Fold each of these.
Amino acid sequence: MASLTRQNAGGVTLLTDRAVEGGVTFAFTERAGGVSEAPYASLNLGASCGDDPACVAENRRRALAAIGAEGLLGRLVCPRQVHGDHVVTVGSGDAGSVAAAQAEAEAGADAVVCTAPDVPVLLCFADCVPVVIVAPGGRGFAVAHSGWRGTEARIAATTTRALCAAAGCGPEALLAYVGPHIGAADYEVSEELAARFATAFGPGAVPTPRHLDLAFCVRAALAEAGVGEGRVTVCEDSTARTTGRFFSYRAEGGTCGRHGALAVLRDEPWAWPAGSKDDETKGEATRR
């Protein structure tokens, strides 16, 4: 059964499923283990929040090393996130294709589907919902950024369909992971926006007046695309209440770094380093 456990690899703390097979390695990073100074301390992976670019580059190098992708920083696909529903697809790992995917992503996108080996993908977050979707047998993966606009547009469903098309598999074979995000109790929105989501996704989207449950809506979008509830694993930690571990735009007054959702498909087998598993925190992220 899929699950998320907390790990420490090379000083970088992250959440991952070590049991994923087929060559895909992914992680939701925490904020520890980097070189950035306050208010971006310390593993800030976002390049557009005011941090020193040299620190961001070193942090990204460390995060890639933690998932066995050290040396691939120059091949990293990291979109300029625009709260839309555009999906970039990387189907080849040759230099020209990677450069084209990087350019398309930098022009604006909120999801990346990758079926090419040795092309790492990073999206950045500080309350919005990170989604990683893994295809079976090493066929590929997808990473999506689902803020309220992207959630309303059902970017998780769009990304699922794009991954199925690229990987040649059905949605019933996918595994989906919903990473750390702001919880409903901490996410108060306008009455108008709450009403829109309740209409679009059902009353469960607004469990208490004006409090929006983005993860509920993301799970609903995944279900619409054919990913069964038993194939979805959700991190229940609210970023707004765990700022010692994650960045939170809302809780930190709009000035903070960004943690990441990071994934790569390796052409050669890679295993987590011995001793990298943190058993004491196992179960903090659970299936729903």
Amino acid sequence: MLTFANAKINLGLFLTEKRTDGYHNLQTVFYPIKIYDVVELIDAEETSCMVKGIEVPGETTDNICLRAFKMLQAEFNLPNQRIILLKNIPVGAGLGGGSADAAFLIKLINDKFNLGISIAEMENYARKLGADCAFFIRNQPVYAFGKGDEFEEAEIDLSSYFLVLVKPPVHVSTAQAYANVSVKQPVQPLKRLIELPLSEWQSVMLNDFEPSVFAAFPQIAEIKTKLYEAGAKFALMSGSGSSVFGIFDRAVQLPELEKENLVFYNL
């Protein structure tokens, strides 16, 4: 059996507090987008993980999907499986590809073995794997808070716009992004700002990772500038970077940005 795991972007991201457990409290809005990995489960004599497509840093024995499967295997005495990942979601881009793969694998396991795990229970399993992993269980726009794994429904629909995502040829690790970030309480909570008209987002819907990441990687800041120059109504780096998205009210082509970057249109 196989499934298609999609990416996400962050519509705003406020880092509000450093936690005692090493995480940060934050406010963000997760929004699913149409870039997909393929996650497949095949019966096998031994449990293993194979990754194809985009190269993923680290050993496959540490892959988040393998950890997800072994967690459920221990709980439900599952037979061994071969996990095959066809990676298409850019890595180190703030798009949640690894978390998406693990969450969709949990749902795939639930379906394949008829485990009857509820959505809420699947979210709890996903929370053990990563801060944003639980989002992908329901996979619908949410206002996220806490360390990014507590959710409230977000009434937001960008389907009438044209979303463009640009991934430069640089990798921003999560640890690197957090190393130089500043935390502060926002003047207004993000769940209120997201209700404003999109035309007002530029000055208030910020990403607190941008200052430090832009300082280290000026080419990412330049992409954001070029998206606005091309007519974007709103542009922002997603998550801890390195991808930047632009929201347009018309279809666009950006050949200048295509020269050195991956560009995804109409997401």
Amino acid sequence: MASDTKRPLTLRDVSEASGVSEMTVSRVLRNRGDVSEATRARVLEAAKELGYVPNKIAGALASSRVNLVAVIIPSLSNMVFPEVLTGINQVLENTDLQPVVGVTDYLPEKEEKVLYEMLSWRPSGVIIAGLEHSDASRAMLQAAGIPVVEIMDTDGKPVDAMVGISHRRAGREMAQAILKAGYGRIGFMGTKMPLDHRARKRFEGFTEVLAKNGIEIEDRDFYSGGSALAKGREMTQAMLERSPDLDFLYYSNDMIGAGGLLYLLEQGVDIPGQIGLAGFNDVELLQGLPRRLATMDACRLEIGRTAAEIIATRLEDPETGIETQVTLAPKISYGDTLKRR
């Protein structure tokens, strides 16, 4: 969606696209009335392609919006997102706007469903994690006619506004720090990345720098589900049994990195002399570990605050000149597990 104001789609738009009456469109979308399967399929396909979402606000309020901001994130169990929500709430609590959260579990089809339901209540704005969406979700966001802020990532083109970090740059900077410290036999552990686009981009940036320096990752492992701490321990043990000569382990997040750190400390491994470690996210909870894990801050609180400020400011003044594509700069924390040279 461009910066210009777009009118919301109506039943007439779907009627014209599908070639049936507005009354028939209404009956199909409310799942009522005697409508043939062929007509129903034609109407639903037209609505999906347009990104049309029915309005659940009835009667006199039918053309209105409510003071809700739809916040759509992939996970609540991941400790990254509560801090983002805190930033959003810090800004919106000083306004009439109220955040309402939906969770997608990193599944594009679930994101479609959550987005559809939230937009049907006509929120005043949307904050949604990531830049990668299905065609149907992107169509709904483009047709919503409200401010949309995609968060966490700026490696791509937004529907409207975006606030986050460049994950490719984060991966590149961590690789540069590791190589500068003298490490060269590197293993990688992370989430399965087809659906975790931000982890994939960090990995791409990381391996890009290694390749330019004539180095390849010597071992890698991926996980999905279960306790991240336990998985980190298990994967670290298995990787070092396979590849005992590794001198650095890079984890896609701090939680599996913490599991790896605890395992290595139990084994009496010299960290960072024999093996260095680094994660990502700078999770505050892990500051109580026996050693501070090297990591990189993802600017979570600032991302939440900035996204909410964009929504609130544009709703107050649609013609405002506020910056709508904001790339923040995370910094490496070397901790006790990455040598500095």
Amino acid sequence: MATFTQPHHHRSFSTFNPSRPKPKPAAATRIRMSLKEDAPSVAVVGVTGAVGQEFLSVLHDRDFPYRSIKMLASKRSAGKHLSFQNREYTIEELTADSFDDVDIALFSAGGSISKEFGPVAVEKGAVVVDNSSAFRMEEGVPLVIPEVNPEAMKGIKAGIGKGALIANPNCSTIICLMAATPLHRRAKVKRMVVSTYQAASGAGAAAMEELLQQTREVLEGKPPTCNIFKQQYAFNLFSHNAPVVSNGYNEEEMKLVKETRKIWNDMDVKVTATCIRVPVMRAHAESVNLQFENPLDEETAKDILRSAPGVVVIDDRAANHFPTPLEVSNKDDVAVGRIRRDLSQDGNHGLDIFVCGDQIRKGAALNAVQIAEMLL
């Protein structure tokens, strides 16, 4: 693989449409499509984590073009080998020198790592797509869902030697707004009430493993191991484990409030949330109540959602079949169902919907890679 010896030289990359479904050709074809001399150099930070691994899966599935790719992680993972697209890579320790000749850096190693190394990567000319909460609410940092607000990253390109930071929204915000935004565009949301049912994947690979372990332990009559969470997770649910702030909301709930306003560029929209951790492996579910400024009936809402990019409608009342976390696990699209008029509001000014989306995929890795595609 060629190295980019002139990182400040302008490079012209292919244009991608992040909303377009990507075909999945044979493996040999994928490799030939991905490795390109005129493509960007990529770094994956936190490659050994659940989202880092999903970054690689999404890059592979969407045939993301690259001329070189760095696998970066902590010192304890450095030196280990990782196979990607029939090539063997050695995981490198993340240092300040890791971003020489890197055009796009995909970060998912936690907020403290992002704060330390994100600005370093930008200084060296890389465009950083950060999956942590470190920069989401910073003035001037785009907070982007490609299907919702691609205009927020206008003018940012990879390979021109000018670094930039782009933030990936929180997973619950992405999944919610994928469904709510098309309706908001039609009838303008005045108030949104969200109740989330969040999977173990949101707390990382160790939490997913602990849920499996606890399930076995409880079924065998043993006390559950509680290292990640302070209480039993298997066969239980509890308020999201994010810290509770002074107003009584936890940080996860406040992310939905603040991030929605920033992404919609609407400081007046009223948002309230209750976030719950449920014993599901990797896909979040959300109950969303919407109050509109303009009338919107449920049939029109269904038509709008059926044509929305990245959204699939599962709404079979006769069969009582609606979205479930299992149905969307490992899937790109966010599923929407239970689309019905809010009976507590007069006329057609309110709807209830139920949304499910894969937290690791669209809620994290896929959204970040779609942003990277827009940089090309």
